[in-house]
């Protein structure tokens, strides 16, 4: 069946390509309809898990991803590159500029995806219809037709994503910390190399991991389904009835987006109490226990009531994760932070009763904020005498306990993946992965050779070694090779978890800080660089893999995608470095706490504080045997053994009167451990409201009104996020940044 489909698709595609080549310029709009999602087919599909069928076996994918392709659709066009580079430079520059400010604003890629549509249509209308003959390189379309198509739109979206969609590059925080807080004389060459090495290393690792993270149908990457929904909505005209709802996806998107944008002015500006709706605390504002339990900033946030989408989607959009994943995450939160943490606090374990219950700050032995300057020398190294006279660091209950959970996640993630997905990993390595319709369609294109990504990875590692040696970073050259081992071990396990659940399993910052803290004690800059060359490489790699899946779904030619991602990454990195260096050299009092315009460098300040605790003081003085938090080290073996216990139970107790207990397989310890990675600053309101919305849509509505869910769920996710983002941008630039204030009142 698979070979017959592939042969028919190839024959049909080749005929269309031949016709397009004969005409040189394709001005027909048929492709605007050929890649539509067949909504009627989705609603009538019985959902059989036939991976070799003519559609995806996963309803989430069927809902928003077209299962047909047209290779004649032009992608590598001048208008695509103009838009891609323009959004890359402007978006990366704006996001980097405001990342140095608090409060800040972050332009998400969904905004770029929405704005690209009218600009793409405009370029298609005004650019001349022509192609350039490049001789042996072939022909290049300047403007092939008058229709900005979905594949061009996808590439522009991906270029925006990789360059600024996930925020400023974490490695730019090194530049801020080193220049503004450590007063190091950084050369521009170092600043460029450290950002490029981190970003491009992630690109190479993602490409090498694509057989495991992109091609398998089961790795659906729920995070890109809202992008797919918006793309399909903007380019599709299909409109089937869904549980009595006839409204088109486009009109539904526009109504929800405008409504969400207008509504956010209330919790975001006019009536901010709607965001932190702590009605129990209003009744007893001076009751400490009530504030501990129901407080939404420094408490446990037991009440799930909020009217602010930014609070609900604080961690991730709840409409994107499967319901079983949400149950694991919220179950872990209940156990660890609504049961265990209060017990630790009220039992005064680690002296936590003297500190706030939920806070990300570090304290000294007088319950004051830890004064790092008291234990540092003028050369920014640890003064051991001053440290002994002053105080060790003390952590609030939630902050201390989340480190223990992170230790468990570090071992649970690889153990769980290699137990439950080991066969899948081995099959991909041997080239035995079963291909769904999307993978089969993508095989009709020229593939990107694996050694392209391998060459990038090797070259970047060499540049990393040159960087640490030439610029005297105190990090030995062999540490660059050591840092590369972490992505080699964790990239695929973390990617599989996030690709299935949309939950970020990358807790490697703790591992990198531990290794770097023990090996490079007293060398904070070396600790920071080691961290970004290991942890941040995995983080960037997961972003790249996610966008590769988006290109996979939208049938973007792999080699075009390779050059689009690579060029956008380099251009975005150079833009962010340029903006950072310019601001550090030209903005008065930048990074000081009382900077007049709020440019206090929050990311650089966080990295500086972390480097002092882990790099200067070091984990040996905090977590080693006999130290105050040494008991948390037990979580390493707890994290490793829990997936094994669950697997053994499933293996020998999975049958009940001949029926399999499928729920045992749904117990996912990595999700239970890593799902709470944002605590603090996230509190119970961010998890309880997230779980409530998730279960409402992805369990109840999906089960009861599957047609409605299939047609509108992911469009709703995109609309809510886009409306929130646009409203936040307007509030920031019109109210916050100019220094204006909304009238003060009780709400």
From TrEMBL:
Residues 9-20 have a biased composition (Basic and acidic residues). It comes from the Eukaryota. It holds the Pfam family OPT. InterPro entries: Oligpept_transpt, OPT. Its main location: membrane. One of its GO terms (biological process) is protein transport. It is found in: Membrane. Keywords: Membrane, Peptide transport, Protein transport, Transmembrane, Transmembrane helix, Transport. Residues 1-20 are annotated as: Disordered. One of its GO terms (cellular component) is plasma membrane. GO terms for molecular function: oligopeptide transmembrane transporter activity. The chain crosses the membrane at residues 80-98, 189-213, 219-240, 252-277, 289-307, 319-340, 400-420, 450-471, 477-497, 561-584, 628-650, 713-740. It is a multi-pass membrane protein. Belongs to the oligopeptide OPT transporter family. PANTHER family: ISP4 LIKE PROTEIN. This is OPT family small oligopeptide transporter. It comes from Sclerotinia sclerotiorum (strain ATCC 18683 / 1980 / Ss-1).
């Amino acid at each position: 069946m698979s070979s017959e489909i592939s042969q028919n698709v190839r024959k049909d595609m080749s005929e269309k390509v031949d016709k397009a080549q004969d005409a040189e310029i394709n001005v027909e709009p048929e492709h605007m309809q050929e890649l539509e999602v067949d909504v009627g087919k989705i609603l009538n599909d019985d959902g059989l898990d036939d991976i070799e069928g003519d559609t995806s076996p996963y309803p989430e994918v069927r809902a928003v991803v077209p299962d047909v392709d047209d290779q004649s659709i032009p992608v590598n066009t001048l208008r695509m590159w103009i838009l891609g580079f323009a959004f890359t430079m402007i978006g990366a520059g704006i996001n980097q500029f405001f990342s140095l400010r608090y409060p800040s604003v972050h332009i998400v890629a969904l905004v770029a995806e929405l704005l690209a549509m009218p600009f793409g249509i405009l370029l298609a209308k005004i650019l001349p219809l022509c192609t350039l003959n490049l001789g042996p390189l072939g022909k290049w379309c300047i403007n092939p037709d008058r229709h900005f198509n979905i594949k061009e739109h996808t590439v522009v979206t991906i270029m925006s994503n990789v360059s600024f969609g996930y925020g400023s590059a974490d490695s730019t925080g090194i530049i801020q910390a080193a220049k503004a807080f450590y007063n190091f004389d950084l050369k521009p060459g170092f600043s460029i190399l450290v950002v490029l090495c981190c970003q491009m290393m992630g690109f190479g690792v993602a490409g090498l991991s694509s057989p495991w993270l992109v091609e398998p149908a089961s790795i659906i990457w729920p995070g890109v389904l809202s992008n797919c929904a918006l793309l399909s909505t903007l380019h599709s005209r299909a409109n089937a009835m869904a549980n009595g709802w006839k409204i088109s996806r486009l009109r539904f998107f526009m109504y929800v987006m405008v409504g969400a944008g207008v509504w956010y002015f209330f919790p975001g500006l006019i009536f901010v109490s709607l965001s932190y709706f702590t009605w129990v605390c209003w009744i007893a504002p001076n009751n400490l226990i009530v504030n501990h339990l129901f407080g939404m900033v420094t408490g446990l946030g037991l009440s799930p009531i909020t009217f602010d989408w930014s609070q609900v989607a604080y961690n991730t959009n709840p409409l994107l994760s499967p319901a079983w994943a949400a149950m694991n995450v919220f179950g872990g939160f209940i156990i660890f932070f609504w049961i265990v943490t209060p017990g630790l606090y009220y039992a005064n374990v680690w002296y936590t009763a003297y500190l706030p219950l939920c806070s990300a700050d570090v304290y000294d032995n007088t319950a004051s904020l830890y004064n790092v300057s008291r234990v540092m020398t003028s050369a920014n190294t640890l003064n051991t005498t001053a440290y002994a006279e002053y105080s060790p660091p003390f952590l609030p209950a939630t902050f201390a306990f989340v480190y223990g959970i992170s230790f468990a996640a570090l071992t649970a993630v690889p153990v769980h993946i290699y137990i439950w997905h080991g066969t899948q990993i081995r099959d991909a390595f041997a080239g035995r992965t079963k291909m769904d319709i999307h993978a089969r369609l993508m095989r009709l294109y020229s593939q990107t050779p694996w050694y392209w990504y391998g060459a990038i990875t090797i070259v970047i590692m060499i540049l990393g070694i040159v960087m640490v040696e030439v610029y005297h970073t105190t990090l030995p050259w062999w540490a660059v090779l050591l840092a590369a081992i972490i992505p080699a071990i964790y990239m695929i396990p973390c990617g599989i978890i996030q690709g299935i659940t949309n939950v970020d399993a990358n807790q490697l910052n703790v591992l990198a800080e531990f290794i770097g803290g023990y090996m490079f004690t007293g060398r904070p800059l070396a600790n920071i660089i080691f961290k970004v060359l290991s942890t941040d490489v995995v983080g960037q790699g997961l972003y790249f893999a996610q966008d590769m899946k988006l290109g996979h779904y939208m049938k973007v030619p792999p080699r075009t995608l390779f050059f689009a991602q690579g060029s956008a990454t380099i251009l975005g990195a150079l833009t962010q470095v340029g903006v950072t260096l310019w601001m550090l050299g030209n903005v008065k009092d930048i990074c000081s706490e009382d900077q007049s315009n709020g440019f206090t460098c929050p990311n650089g300040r966080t990295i500086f504080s972390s480097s002092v605790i882990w790099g200067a003081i070091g984990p040996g003085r905090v977590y080693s045997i006999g130290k105050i938090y040494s008991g948390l080290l037990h979580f390493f073996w707890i994290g490793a053994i829990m997936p094994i216990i669950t697997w053994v139970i499933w293996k020998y107790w999975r049958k009940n009167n001949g029926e399999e207990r499928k729920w045992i397989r749904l117990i996912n310890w990595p999700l239970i451990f890593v799902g709470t990675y944002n605590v603090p600053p996230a509190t119970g309101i961010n998890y309880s409201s997230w779980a409530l919305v998730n279960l409402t849509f992805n369990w109840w509505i999906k089960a009861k009104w599957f047609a409605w869910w299939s047609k509108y769920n992911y469009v709703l996710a995109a609309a809510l996020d886009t409306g929130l983002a646009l409203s936040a941008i307007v509030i920031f630039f019109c109210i916050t940044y100019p220094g204006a204030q909304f009238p003060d009142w009780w709400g």
